[in-house]
Design a protein that fits this description.
Blueprint: H1 19-24, H2 28-52, H3 57-65, H4 67-81, H5 85-89, E1 96-101, E2 104-109, H6 110-140, H7 145-171, H8 173-183, H9 187-206, E3 210-217, E4 223-230, E5 232-236, H10 239-245, E6 259-263, E7 268-271, E8 284-285, E9 288-292, H11 297-315, H12 318-343, H13 353-359, H14 369-378, H15 385-398, H16 400-404, H17 411-451, H18 462-466, H19 471-474, H20 478-511, H21 519-543, H22 547-576, H23 585-611
Parallel strand pairs: 5-6
Antiparallel strand pairs: 1-2, 3-4, 3-9, 6-7, 7-8
């Protein structure tokens, strides 16, 4: 006969055995989901879909599932030994490095020192995320007239690109018949309708040109600046790209009226007159080093939202963090999945069954760039390296380790350990189902809408571009719906990730001997990290305003960290696990498979960054 959980004076508690009570005791996994959906799914996954189209769907799903085995193994070690992740990793065999810090000596093994390096990139990632939230707010509530003008211009530019994408699909014999059948139109009527919409958006865009700041050099190499008003900027890597686009077969002019064209190879910039011949375009600016728009609304909002996050971090506790994350993530996840299903009725952007099957066929797109982006994404989608390391802290803070009690040889301890490990399994796999569905939805939206429209989310236009994924279904409401979701998910990610990283920072000070940490000092340290880490993160964005790049740099560093975590997990499994709690052979197989996946990604990312 099973007994219901009961508490003891020393904090030990029997694990729940019935599913409703088990579900009431989960939570750490949903906190991870709150920190996962923002940077990994919303930013990196959609970027991968836009670049690789449907080819890497299999890699995205694999990235979500394969890491859970390592996640649970780290959680198992934490709750059965009462040790934090960094304290456990410091036990892994390998070189120990010691440095002097004033009168103190910091001593830690190789994995801990790499984590310290990776942590710097994570601050940049969080800067990219709060920058994304700032962009969402700047679109919703622009603070300057220049910012309002910029948002209207970018919105019209997105509509132009999506219209041009529809024209390309109509011109393509492979997709024309299906589209015309779904629309119930003949070719000429459909083309005329869409062409008119494109021209109307271009005409409207002429009324809201924006100011580009050009960095140039004269014949003596002296740098100077010049400003020029234009409706858009089209940048291409080489002159050959322009020649290819200027071919007589191109159905759409390369440059619209008052649109800037920039050849990155020759550093030449020209203004379009609507004629698709590069060499005939007037107004030549040579030796242009860069052309950028300087709108500060997003940065101002990023600072305001950072202040809000600091307040919540200093005031909030585990239960508040958990409820806040679940509410925000659940809201936007439901909207996104509904959007994906509704999109299937759109003849231009619906995901066809053959495309879905192709995405699961272990194929690779052409070129290295999509692969590098995908592997950087692999490092942060699902439970990325930073979430793997943070998960045991949330398990301990939830009370799993305290409920199990100090490890001993009794049958009662084994029963409690097995019971709470079962709860942890429900927690980890349940969260995996949530964020995997969300990840798949974001990837398919990125491939189906952004990829087909040649829209790549980047720099100051990231949020504006991402909102296009909701336009085919929600029309004029798309931007408002997406902006709510982007704020919800990205702010949740920023808030939860900073809370998690604060716990690791305080712990690394204790593990390395940099500071003495009793519980009172730990709580004070968490308050201080709740202030300092958000400030450092937003500074990263203020000085380098490219959210996608900041997120992908961190993804690369985390991808390199994954094989180190995999090695540590195998060490815990075979050298540190209680023999009474050992998993079966099938679990071990997937644990090794997880390590193999980590190793491949880590080696390739290291090679790509050092030698390509």
């Amino acid at each position: 006969m099973t007994t219901e959980p009961k508490e003891h004076s020393e904090g030990i508690r029997e694990a729940p055995t019935k599913i409703p009570k088990i579900l009431r005791n989960i939570g750490p996994g949903m906190i991870l989901a709150g920190s996962i959906v923002g940077s990994g799914e919303l930013i990196a996954t959609t970027r991968t879909g836009a670049e690789a189209h449907f080819d890497f769907l299999w890699l995205i799903i694999l990235g979500c599932i394969i890491k859970v085995f390592a996640q649970i193994e780290l959680g198992r070690y934490a709750i059965t030994n009462g040790k934090t992740t960094l304290a456990a990793l410091n036990e892994v065999p390998g070189p120990m490095i010691q440095i002097e810090l004033g009168r103190r000596k910091m001593r830690a093994n190789w994995i801990i020192w790499y984590w310290i390096v990776m942590f710097v990139s994570i601050l940049g990632q969080q800067g990219g995320i709060v920058g994304g939230v700032g962009q969402a707010m700047a679109i919703s509530v622009p603070l300057t007239d220049e910012g309002k003008n910029y948002i209207e211009n970018r919105s019209l530019s997105t509509f132009v690109k999506m219209g041009e994408s529809k024209l390309r699909q109509l011109e393509d014999p492979a997709t024309r018949e299906f589209i015309l059948k779904e629309m119930g139109m003949n070719f000429f009527t459909a083309k005329e309708t869409i062409s008119r919409q494109v021209e109307e958006n271009k005409t409207a865009r002429q009324q809201v040109s924006i100011q580009y700041h050009l960095s140039l050099t004269d014949e003596n190499g002296t740098a100077f600046e010049e400003t020029i008003k234009a409706v858009n900027l089209v940048s291409k890597k080489s002159t050959k790209d322009w020649e290819k686009a200027d071919s007589s077969d191109a159905p759409i002019p390369v440059l619209a009226l008052n649109e800037i064209g920039y050849d990155e190879e020759t550093k030449i910039l020209k203004i379009g007159n609507g004629v698709s011949v590069w060499k005939d375009l007037p107004v030549n600016h040579e030796n242009v080093q860069s052309a950028e728009v300087r709108i500060h609304d997003a940065k101002i909002w990023a600072v305001i939202l950072t202040a809000l996050a600091i307040f919540l971090l200093v005031w909030g506790k585990f239960s508040f963090i958990q409820r806040f994350s679940v509410f925000l993530v659940a809201s936007f996840t439901l909207v996104t999945i509904a959007n994906l299903f509704a999109l299937q009725s759109d003849p231009y952007y619906g995901v066809k069954m053959e495309e879905f099957i192709k995405g699961l066929s272990f194929g690779f797109p052409e070129g290295n760039k999509p692969l590098i982006t995908a592997l950087a994404t692999f490092g942060i989608i699902g439970v990325g390296a930073s979430e793997l390391l943070a998960y045991p802290y949330w398990c301990l803070e939830k009370g799993y380790g305290k409920f199990v009690g100090k490890r001993d040889e009794s049958e009662q301890w084994i029963r409690r350990a097995k019971g709470w490990m079962k709860v942890m399994h429900w927690d980890a796999w349940g969260a995996m189902v949530v964020y995997t569905f969300c990840t798949i939805a974001f990837y398919l939206l990125g491939a189906g809408v952004l990829g087909r429209s040649n829209l790549i989310p980047e720099k100051s236009e990231m949020i504006q571009t991402l909102s296009a994924m909701y336009q085919p279904v929600f029309g004029n409401l798309a931007q408002n719906i997406f902006l709510f979701g982007a704020f919800a998910v990205l702010f949740s990610t920023f808030y939860v990730a900073i809370a998690a990283q604060g716990r690791l920072v305080v712990d690394v000070a204790k593990v390395t001997g940099a500071a003495d940490m009793n519980e009172s000092a730990r709580q004070r340290g968490l308050k201080w990290t709740g202030v300092i880490l958000p400030i450092l993160s937003v500074l990263c964005y203020l000085f380098y305003s490219s959210p996608v790049a900041l997120v992908l740099i961190s993804g690369t560093m985390q991808a390199i960290m994954l094989p180190m975590i995999g090695f540590a997990v195998l060490y815990f499994r075979y050298k540190k696990s209680d023999s009474r709690l050992l998993p079966g052979k099938l679990w071990d197989f997937f644990l090794w498979l997880s390590f193999a996946g980590f190793l491949v990604v880590g080696i390739y990312q290291t090679y790509a960054k050092l030698f390509q």
